[in-house]
Amino acid sequence: IEPWHIDVKDFIDLKKNSGEERRRAHDLFPALWINDLFMRRVEADEAWTLFDPFEVPELVGLYGDAFNERYIECEAREDLTKEVISAKSLWKDILRSYFETGNPFLTFKDTANKANPNGHAGVIRSSNLCTEIFQNTAPNHYNIRIIFEDGSIAIFDEEEIVKVDSGLTKPAKKITALDSLDGKKIWMVDKEAIDGDTAVCNLASVNLSKINTQEDIARVVPVAIRMLDNVIDLNFYPLAKVKKTNEKTRAIGLGVMGEAQMLAQNGISWGSSEHLMRIDQVMESVSYYAIKASSDLAIEKGRYSLYEGSNWSKGIFPIDRANENACKLVDRGGLFGYEHDWDKLREKVKNDGMRNGYLMAIAPTSSISILVGTTQAIEPIYKRKWFEENLSGLIPVVAPKLSPETWQYYTPSYELDQRVLIRAAAVRQKWIDQGQSLNIFITLDKASGKYLNDIYMDAWRFGLKSTYYLRSQSPESVQEVEGIEDRSMECMGCQ
What we know:
Strand content: 15-25%
Distance between the termini: 25 Å
CATH architecture of the largest domain: Alpha-Beta Barrel
């Protein structure tokens, strides 16, 4: 839910182990959909107003300046149910619950929507469970079909405001046969169900421990894009509306795994300037060849149906919507530091189109990375040796290619300053159109309110769209040679 929801304070406590059990939901995965206005008020220590979403439903579909204007208008109204609290106090409660339970996940509404390549066709209303998929969605709704006594018909969206002949204005869904419109008497009011849009995850990950040169990326990424595009047509869909949405956007999510192994093999320390430089170069190539491959497929198989009017059709790529703070983290010499000819690719995409409306997303890969023998996704290692616990039981894991030469470059996640994870994620985010599944790791002795605030404020300031779990451990368990990483409660769909 969004942080202006009247029940937000109860919502963030859903997974706490203390308190009234009837007000807990331990098997759910709550997340907050946070707007920039709330974060700015936290920074300024200003008041924040909570509303009943049934009274202000329009706020859900608005973002950016449109949301800000409407929200401030609602604050000034006296006829709405509302509660005024301290924004900073709510933020502290969010971080406290996040540290105690690992939830709610934080997702950033304005950041996601401002970078939405298909903003012309809808609104992103949430991420998926693993917080890397950001696509347009829409709820099921009804069209109101009004049949007049003279046989004519008028159709309105159920929420459309209509002025009836009595002088009253009301949503179309509340019009009855007792009303009249434009002097015409109503004979019957009927409803037509309209399916909404449901986002779909079609995911694959490039193993960076083996595929990290420009030549290898150029060879492998087009194959992965073609494979994922084929999945859309071959997949089984449990609901017709899911298939309809997927065929309309042809959304896929190509990500990466094995980043920590790639760094260790090349003698690069996690969080160093060399790390940021290397991942910037790698993600540029992944982005370039993914976009090019989808454009090539558009020539062969046709464009996705919503292409016209999209950012792709205007030659606007993820890097063109990149966060300013993130762009300052790596200095590659400005426009002349790029590895690829982006202007040429922009012209190609404008001329040839795109096969896929969404292209890139970095999933957790905690299971498939073990299967292929590399480190998971974009994370530093949990330990140099540990046990993964999931629904299958305990699985022993050793950092890939661990040796005296790579030992020092495999820095366990809990030993790192977590702000370097945020900065590395910010560098990746410049190049991808969706998001990343990013965990944060903190030991109890480091978990001050200031440190947590710095981490998650940085996530927002550097343009991340989300953060996933906040994993906390005692210093003693971190010092153990072997540990257990429990993932039995995680979603297996993106693993």
